[in-house]
Amino acid sequence: MIQFHRRLRPVKVISFDLDDTLYDNLPVMQQAEQALLEYLHQQFPQTAAFGLQDWRALRDKLAAADAMLATNMTALRQATLRHGLEQHGLAADLATRGAEDAMLHFLQHRNQVDVADDVHHLLDALAARFPLLAISNGNADISKIGIGEYFTQAWQPSEHLRGKPTTDMFRAAQQKLGFNPAELLHIGDHPVSDVQGAARFGAQTVWLNQSGRFDPRLTWLPTVTIAHLPLLSDFL
């Protein structure tokens, strides 16, 4: 399914979200969080009764209290780990060090991503015609997950760049590559982070709606809606 909501204007640069756009992120995160939990229980036995739901509840609490932190998945998880370890009796410096070590362990598993062959073929074809950018709130490493060769640059939230739906990372990309906002086509699955964030910057947007269902969070109309990523090749 391809649905055009407005005419697609000339595109000079394409940006992609990563998680749940180029691959299914749910099984990746399930495996990575389970590996992290086992690591925490082994390294910090005092956390043995603190399960996945407890860690997620703590993460959600921190995200609700800090809108900027909520868009930076790396900083949010690290803060969650630090707060959780402090809650279980570690001094602040030990909790910080423990959170950093735990985060490294998590990232090893988090980057065990299987990108489908048809996505590789699509990225390869598009990279021959456009500069491709990765703009993600998450912490997947494009080189470690095997798609780095297709991308000119990748942006993720940092101390100086807020995550989507703010326009910080889109503006950083614009400053680096020198394109007009309307010449960028951003592709992503999230109706707020991707569609709203890119549209606020002035970019054209493709919403990847694999469920085919209406999403009440979609308050900014995308340029195009598609049900499957390979459909991009039908109009690009």
From TrEMBL:
GO terms for molecular function: hydrolase activity. This is Phosphoesterase. Its cofactor is Mg(2+). Keywords: Hydrolase, Magnesium. One of its GO terms (biological process) is riboflavin biosynthetic process. It comes from Aliidiomarina soli. NCBIfam families: HAD-SF-IA-v1, HAD-SF-IA-v3. InterPro entries: HAD-like_hydrolase (IPR051400), HAD-like_sf (IPR036412), HAD-SF_hydro_IA (IPR006439), HAD_sf (IPR023214). Pfam families: Hydrolase (PF00702).
